[in-house]
Design a protein that fits this description.
The protein has 347 residues and is α/β, with parallel strands linked by helices. The chain is built from 16 helices and 13 strands. The strands form two sheets. The protein has a seven-stranded parallel beta sheet with strand order 3-2-1-4-5-6-7, with helices on both faces. A six-stranded parallel beta sheet has the order 10-9-8-11-12-13, with helices on both faces.
């Protein structure tokens, strides 16, 4: 092992989170690792070539002769994806956590039986004060607030809206809804089954771009039958979707918090399932959310200009609690912190 810090690339979408930071780090300091199976290593290797980074086979790190490096993972069970029973301590001596998305962190940390898994982490990167304050009583790890690096470009070099509207097949005379449902888990939380019919009734009034979670294998047929402007099933960067959105509709987990960070008009769909984590519950106390799949009610909310004026003020207050104020510079903040990890951990 000739690198001091290794980013575990457990899913291709993690590159939206990591790449802005990796571009700012010395090439002799960091490397990537990915599983050999399912084409993930090939993807990671291509990313590594593009960025000039070494890329390791994750399975090869288990039992390696040296564990004197820092492993960055997106959740504590990451290496159990390789094989049951693997623990972080078997891979490297030092660990830092970079949560994949808001909500996932407290969801997994506080789940029964998971807390001990997080004992290996010496550093946890947090999006902002709420996350840090929530975690502080439960972990001895150093908590570093970084904002949201993957969305820096929205503030420094936003994509061209007109060209994206053309690419997504949108009618420029209509307002655009971007719908970002989460991955269904045992039939829960994904809003497509409950709300697809209601949203299809609005397809003649709005441009509707539906991006399914890239791992969602169950919602595509229904989604494509609804007459939406576009249905996306690949890991298209949400930055491009946020650039065209007049409204963003979400249900649970990361996309809703990304839309909040981008200060978009945000509407949440409730599927009737238990709210999966603390942060999603908090978000629903501030952001409009719907239980009923009614096209009339959805249209009423979207058309309520006074509501959205009030929401603009509310979002500003919520963003101060949820996010560190590094809009456009989060990548630099995180890169600087990562450069300091070897010193912090005694390497």
């Amino acid at each position: 092992m000739d690198r001091k810090i290794v980013f575990y690339l457990g899913h291709p979408t993690l590159m939206h989170q990591y790449e802005p930071v990796l571009r700012l780090l010395p090439r002799d300091l960091v490397a990537l690792a990915a599983r050999r199976r399912d084409g993930e290593y090939r993807f990671a290797f291509e990313v590594g070539e593009r960025l000039g980074l070494a890329c390791y086979v994750a399975e090869g790190l288990i039992g390696a002769s040296s564990r004197e490096f820092i492993l960055l993972t997106h959740h504590a069970k990451a290496f159990q994806e390789i094989g049951p029973g693997y623990r972080l301590e078997q891979i490297a001596r030092h660990h830092a956590l970079v949560p994949y998305s808001y909500g996932v962190l407290d969801d997994t940390l506080f789940a029964p039986g998971n807390k001990e898994l997080y004992g290996a982490y010496e550093v946890i990167f947090c999006n902002g004060p709420y996350q840090a304050d929530t975690l502080r009583p439960h972990t001895p790890a150093k908590l570093i607030q970084i904002g949201y690096p993957r969305y820096d470009r929205l503030f420094t070099d936003p994509p061209d809206r007109d060209s994206l509207m053309t690419r997504f097949g949108c009618d420029p005379s209509k307002r655009t809804i971007v719908w970002l449902p989460t991955l269904p888990s045992n039939g829960q939380w994904c809003s497509v089954p409950k709300f697809a019919a209601a949203m299809s009734r609005l397809a003649s009034i709005y441009n509707i771009i539906l991006k399914l979670h890239p791992d969602d294998r169950s919602s595509g047929e229904l989604a494509r039958s609804c007459g939406f402007t576009m249905v996306i099933t690949d890991p298209t960067d949400n930055i491009e979707l946020f650039a065209v959105a007049d409204f963003c509709v979400c249900d649970y987990y990361g996309s809703a918090f990304g839309a909040l960070y981008a200060d978009l008009n945000l509407l949440l769909f409730n599927t009737g399932d238990p709210v999966p984590n603390l942060a999603d519950g908090v978000l629903r106390s501030f952001i409009p959310n719907l239980d009923a799949a009614s096209p009339i009610e959805i249209e009423r909310i979207l058309g309520d200009r006074e509501l959205w004026r009030e929401q603009k003020l509310r979002r500003q207050a919520v963003r101060q609690v949820m996010y560190a104020p590094y809009y456009g510079t989060s990548s630099e903040v995180m890169a600087s912190a990562i450069k300091g990890l070897p010193r912090l951990m005694g390497l």
